[in-house]
């Protein structure tokens, strides 16, 4: 049987019934979180295959007949020895979320940036209850994403990474994973939690700036700019959860330039055969900076999360030559040419 659960405001801690249809706290407007009363009892998931639903008992679904699935989860935790050698790491893995089913959705374009699209979709779901908000503002979405942390621990046979590096846009993944690692520790499945290292693009880094300045609030960025579209977010809804995850885990936040992101994207593809969107490559670029600054030890077990397949953002292929202030090297032009032929 699933554990009972409720919703709780991350800011003022007011609790609400799980069935509330609001995406924010009715009292203070803060983001919500699903709270389980979990205890150390035997759980049956070890005999199941790797997927989101392996962890059924830790997910807030009242009845199995409500489950809708495209067999999501169970993505590869890929050992990256060649990239690891270059970065001076003995054990480097990439958790490749781009393997998830993503295809065939009906897409509407919104004129404006991510923050404007976010406002539009929130307004839409407020007025039309038939639409379901699947943005990471929705605490139930984060429940699915937290299984990422469970999977990493299971794929490492119960070992917990020393450092977990991931791109941060709206902050859903890093918040959800920190929650997942915490729940596994509470359940006694694992004994520790990793340091959470969030990576943002230089032109869209409100969270990284707050962490570096040791501030407890972010200053939203107007007109965020970066080639990495999935993290081109100036006003991330989960900023409070992200600051909590980074601070509580004694992690850090890093910023990377578009040039560093594109170099990391190429490097991951050529060295390990993993083609990811630019936002995902930010985690690799951020890892390199952390290594160069001596913040991650050579012997550390490091997992980078790549959140989207390279084909999620193919515009980068023809965007590059037009990108002002960016000098292309011959090798990069070769790489883009090869990619265009593949596409
Ligand atoms: Zn509240």
Helix content: 25-40%
Report mean pLDDT, rounded to a whole number: 90
Question: Which ions and ligands are bound to the chains?
Answer: zinc ion
Could you tell me the CATH topology label.
Answer: Rossmann fold
**Rg value:** 20 Å
- CATH class descriptor name: Alpha Beta
Give helix and strand order, one letter per element, not per position: EEEEHEHHHEHEHHEHHEHH
Largest sheet: 6 strands, mixed
Strand share of the residues?
A: 5-15%
Counted by DSSP, the helix tally is 11
Low-confidence stretches: none
Instruction: Estimate the global geometry from the Cα principal axes.
Output: globular
Distance between the termini: 47 Å
Task: Explain what the structure shows.
The chain is α/β, with parallel strands linked by helices and 343 residues long. The chain has a single domain (71-312), classed as 3-Layer(aba) Sandwich (Rossmann fold). Helix content is 34%, strand content 13%. The protein contains eleven helices and nine strands. The protein has helices at 81-87, 114-127, 139-145, 147-155, 172-187, 206-212, 239-248, 258-272, 278-292, 316-319, 330-342, and strands at residues 5-9, 15-16, 32-36, 77-79, 91-96, 163-167, 195-201, 252-256, 301-306. A six-stranded mixed beta sheet has the order 4-5-9-6-7-8, with helices on both faces. A three-stranded antiparallel beta sheet has the order 2-1-3. Helix 5 links the parallel strand 6 (163-167) and strand 7. It is globular, with a radius of gyration of 20 Å. The model has no long low-confidence stretch (mean pLDDT 90). Bound molecules: zinc ion. Zinc ion (ZN) is lined by residues 9, 11-12, 14, 25, 27-28, 30.
